């Protein structure tokens, strides 16, 4: 019988145990931060009905969807009724519409789950990946001050993660459309197409944008120059940001521009109240994002020490989350972290190392005659709340120590006949390369102190 080569589908990230522990700690930190800001967890099924998931026919989204079909339906020639979710926003829209009368508004939810997209297989692009979303959904209205809370969450999170410098870039779609209207670019599709190119400025540069605006949209050099000057602007402080908005309103008059500027000022004022320093915030007038989706404030977060990664967290304001599923008006604001891509990128840069094992202590088995005492020792340590693996087969000590080192287990408890006679246990610290002896009845308390110190040194939060 020929063997099937073991392999994963292209675009899936599969980790070894110590890598998985490191990734899980990233998710745990994100989850803890979301909860600290009062967001509640939900989960939705990995599959949704196609009529719910695909509310718009055709388009790029549908080309990236994985459809799910039973063998019976396929053989009968029936169209797939189910599809794997491609993001967490559409399931949220369905969820809020379905449970609208059972939820308390504003509804604050977080969701950390896998999503699936038919991406072209390439390095750093995934077909199965974790998204970590937070959204605040209002009933009928949601004041713009809520738009400031999400950057506050991200500031707290990325400060705790400690990846180095980062900056939360903010803009407003109303401001963008107001500027385009004031420059004579017609509303509707012309603005949408121009904004789609503006959104590529940081990736492709001003010369690409200049050539595209001239050749594709036939804009005059004066309009192109003014537009490039606008979208190339970045603020350096809260005071500078307010000054830029004032100058913009003075130079270009349009009601939508004025509304967008007022909303941005409100967000900036509340960020001060949330304690977010302006060293980590800037206005970036080139950010448009989700051109058919976002309607007001938009965000992107970059790691300033590693700008080549691109945006690591993005989102914004939408006027009506669930218009395809309910007549109720449900405005909201949200953002998302692509955790799988972020972890992969940081690991490639050497910023994420393999974690120690979740097993805190290995109880070695020095001799078959000591199996009973060794298992009893492991049981006492587990009763004290310590994660313990007990060796069930006797082997040379060097082999057991090598196993602990390879598995990332920091402490090894050694209970030989000499230790048993003296009522003590020897403990080997694999990281420091040291060994100490402790009374058997004091072992759990001693290890708790050692484990706490090891966690503190490694920057790992307590569970």
Give the gist of this structure:
This protein is α+β, with helices and mostly antiparallel strands. It has 18 helices and 16 strands. It is an enzyme of class 6 (ligase).
Kindly describe this structure:
There is one protein chain. The protein has helices at residues 17-36, 50-53, 59-63, 71-75, 89-98, 146-161, 173-182, 189-198, 201-204, 206-215, 221-231, 238-251, 255-273, 339-348, 371-383, 397-407, 417-422, 443-458; strands at 40-41, 47-49, 67-68, 82-84, 107-116, 128-137, 166-172, 281-283, 297-303, 311-318, 332-338, 361-363, 388-390, 411-414, 424-429, 434-439. With 463 residues, the chain is of the alpha+beta class. Among the domains are: 176-277, no CATH class; 361-458, Anticodon-binding domain (Rossmann fold, 3-Layer(aba) Sandwich), CATH 3.40.50.800. Strands 1-5-6-11-10-9-7-8 form an 8-stranded mixed β-sheet. Helix 1 (17-36) runs antiparallel to helix 6 (146-161), helix 10 runs antiparallel to helix 11 and helix 12 packs antiparallel against helix 13. The mean pLDDT is 91.
Can you tag this structure with a few keywords?
single chain, 463 residues, alpha+beta, 5-stranded mixed beta sheet, elongated, EC 6.1.1.21
């Amino acid at each position: 019988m020929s063997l099937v080569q073991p392999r994963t589908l292209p675009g899936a990230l599969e980790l070894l145990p110590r890598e998985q522990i490191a990734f899980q700690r990233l998710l745990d930190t994100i989850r803890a931060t979301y909860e600290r800001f009062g967001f509640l967890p939900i989960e939705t099924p990995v599959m949704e009905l196609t009529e719910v998931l695909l509310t718009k026919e055709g388009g790029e989204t549908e080309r990236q969807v994985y459809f799910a079909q039973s063998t019976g339906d396929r053989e009968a020639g029936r169209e797939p009724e189910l599809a794997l979710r491609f993001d967490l926003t559409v399931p949220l829209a369905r969820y809020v519409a379905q449970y609208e009368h059972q939820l308390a508004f504003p509804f604050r939810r977080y969701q950390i789950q896998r999503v699936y997209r038919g991406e072209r297989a390439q390095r750093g692009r995934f077909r199965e990946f974790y998204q970590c979303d937070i959204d605040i959904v209002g009933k009928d209205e949601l004041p713009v001050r809520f738009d400031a809370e999400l950057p506050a969450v991200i500031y707290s999170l990325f400060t705790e993660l400690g990846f180095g410098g980062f900056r939360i870039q903010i803009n407003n779609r109303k401001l963008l459309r107001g500027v385009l209207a004031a420059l004579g670019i017609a509303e509707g599709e012309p603005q949408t197409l121009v904004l789609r190119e503006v959104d590529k400025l940081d990736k492709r540069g001003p010369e690409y944008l200049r050539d595209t605006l001239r050749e594709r949209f036939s804009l005059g050099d004066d309009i192109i120059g003014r537009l490039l000057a606008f979208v190339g602007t970045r603020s350096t402080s809260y005071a500078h940001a307010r000054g830029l908005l004032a100058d913009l309103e003075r130079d270009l008059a349009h009601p939508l521009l004025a509304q967008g500027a007022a909303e941005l000022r409100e967000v900036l004022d509340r960020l001060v109240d949330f304690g977010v320093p302006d060293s980590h915030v800037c206005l970036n007038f080139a950010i448009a994002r989700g051109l058919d989706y976002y309607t007001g404030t938009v965000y992107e977060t970059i790691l300033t020490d590693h700008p080549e990664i691109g945006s690591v967290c993005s989102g914004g304001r939408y006027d009506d989350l669930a218009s395809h599923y309910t007549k109720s008006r449900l405005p909201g604001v949200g953002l998302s972290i692509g955790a799988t891509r972020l972890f992969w990128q940081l690991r490639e840069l050497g910023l994420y190392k393999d974690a120690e094992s979740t097993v805190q202590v290995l109880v070695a088995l020095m001799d078959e005659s000591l199996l009973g005492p060794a298992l009893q020792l492991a049981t006492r340590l587990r009763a004290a709340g310590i994660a313990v693996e007990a060796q069930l087969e006797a082997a040379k000590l060097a082999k057991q120590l090598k196993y602990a080192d390879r598995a990332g287990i920091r402490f090894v408890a050694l209970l030989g006949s000499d230790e048993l006679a003296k009522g003590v246990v020897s403990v080997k610290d694999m990281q420091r390369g040291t060994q100490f002896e402790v009374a058997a009845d004091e072992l759990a308390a001693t290890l708790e102190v050692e484990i706490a110190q090891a966690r503190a040194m490694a920057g790992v939060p307590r569970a």
